[in-house]
Amino acid sequence: MNTKTLLELLEAVRSGQTDIESAADRLATLPFVQTANARIDTHRAHRQGIPEVIYGGQKTVEQILESATALLEAGQDVMVTRVDPEKAAQVLRELPPSRHAAEYDAVAKLIWIGPSEPAIQGKGTVLVVSAGSADLPVASEAVQVARRFGNKVELLQDVGVAGVHRLLASLELIRDARVLIVVAGMEGALPSVVGGLVDKPVIAVPTSVGYGASLGGITALLGMLTSCASNVTVVNIDNGFGAAHVATLINRL
Q1: At what angle do helices 136-148 and 240-252 cross, to 10 degrees?
Q2: Model's pTM, two decimal places?
Q3: What is the DSSP-derived secondary structure letter of residue 74?
Q4: Could you tell me where the beta strands, DSSP code E, fall in the chain?
Q5: Which ranges of 1-48 would DSSP assign to H, the alpha helix?
Q6: What are phi and psi of 133, to 5 degrees?
Q7: Fold of the CATH domain 125-252
Q8: Quick check: 61 and 94 in contact, CB under 8 A?
Q9: What ranges do the domains of the chain cover?
Q10: Quick one: pLDDT at residue 116?
Q11: 136-177 tens-digit pLDDT
């Protein structure tokens, strides 16, 4: 239940379209639904403006289905992140019927059950900038999450600092964005460069892409944390979801 549906319910009670007992039954699911393995937060959208999301990385197919079913029964959209193709195929086969078709993005590793084109709530464009093609899975997660959360999103890819002229060729696109998510591995220098070109918030996402000295993304993370561009903030390694979540909140202000 989000703020809009809660207000609609209260208005229906006031107008007599819904009786108090029926409204109480609906509100009884707040603030969470208890399942065998989880407590599904059906109140999150009302508190934060963004609903509960299922992290699928270490969950079994059965656990994902249990949580997804609870959200669907509560009338909410379903997003499941970090789902590999084999697990996703099993989940999609066994999902209960819904008013929306289930979609799976194999690059972003994301399952979505909701409107194909959610209503735009953001005030501007969220631009996801990807340093290299190897960073695309994390960048794609950021793109898909931000889009499903109601943002206009664009992707600018393969513009790493090893060929900075590729980035400068899209300077107008970069400066027109309201929030930027910059995804990079190796030494993680790209967010500093982008940050120096714009007067907008830059959310840096270090990726685990790189050779041995990249230390699984730690080098990029430390480089981004010590950026000399003061409009750069940093999320965790490979955390495209977290970057998109924060970008969404900024873009609604």
Answers
A1: 40
A2: 0.89
A3: T
A4: 33-34, 39-40, 54-55, 78-81, 102-105, 110-113, 125-130, 152-157, 179-184, 202-206, 232-234
A5: 3-15, 20-27, 44-48
A6: -60, -30
A7: Rossmann fold (3.40.50)
A8: yes
A9: 31-113, 125-252
A10: 92
A11: 999 999 999 999 999 999 999 999 999 999 999 999 999 999
